[in-house]
# Entry
Amino acid sequence: MALQELEPSLRRNSHSGECSDFSPRQFPIATSAIENADRYSWFNNMTWVLYVSYVPKDVLSLQKHLGDDESAWPKQCLIEVPPEIRADIDLVVKAAGLAWTNPQISRSIVGGVNAEAMKRWFIDVALWSGSWRAERRNSPAVTKTKRSIRVPIRQTQLQELFNQDGWQCRYCGIPIGGNREHFKKFARQIEMPELIEGRSDEARHGIYLIMMASYDHVVSHSRGGTDGTGNLVTACWPCQFGKYKFELLELGLEDPRLRKPENSGNWKGLCGN
Ligand SMILES: [Zn+2]
# Structure
C-alpha cells in the first residue's frame, strides 16, 4: 500500500518550519493550563499559565525513569519505554498479524491493551523527556548555523525510509504502526473506530499516540540539516515530540545513524504494507 499523507498535525508542523522545532503538543498542555487557571482564578492567570506550561505533569515518573544523573540516562533514546507498555505494543503487533485473517481475535487483543497507561506515559512523561534532559545536562550550547532550505519530503521517500528502518523507531526501537491512513484501514478492519478518534492528545487513543509513524531530522534545519534521507530517521511520536527542539548533543544522545536498524522480522506496520 502506498503511503498516504502524514497525520495532519505533523503535516502542518512540517510545513510551518522545523519538524522538531515546533511541537503542536504544546497546545493541549497550554489548554489544560488555562483550564487550571480558571479553577484558581485568584491567581494571576498569565503567571499561572506560564508556570504550568513549563512544569512536567508527572515529575515523579520523570524522576523515576530518568532522574537527575545524566550518566544513568539511556544514550540511544530519550527515555526507555516501560516494560509493561512495551509488552502491550508487542500485543498490538500480534493483533495486526491476525487482523486480516481473524479480525475478531485481533480486536479482542487490541481491546485488552492498557491504552490509558500508554496515553498517560506519552502525555505526562515522554513528551517532557527532551526538556528534562536538556535542562539537566551540562553541555555547551549548540550554536545555530545558517538554516538549510526546506525541500518537500515525498511520500515515496518516507516509504523507503520506513522500509529501510524496518518500521521501527530508530531511537527507542518500538515498532511503528504507520500513518493515519494505515491506522484508519486497521481500525476499519477490526471495527474499532476509537483507534482513530480525537483531535487532541487527551482525546486520542493510547495506541495511536505511541505507534504513529513519524520521522526526525537528526540535525535540525536551524543547524543546517537537510531533508535528504541521510538526515532523516524513522521515529515514533514519543521520541520525535519528546526530542522537541533540541540537538543530540544537548540531550546526551548518540547519533542513531551510527548504528544499524535492528532486525524487525516481517513487521511492516499495522497494514503489513
Ligand atoms: Zn521511539
Q: What stands out?
A: The chain has a mean pLDDT of 81. Residues 77, 169, 171-172, 174, 235-236, 238-239 surround zinc ion (CB under 6 Å). The CA atoms of residues 2 and 186 lie 15 Å apart.
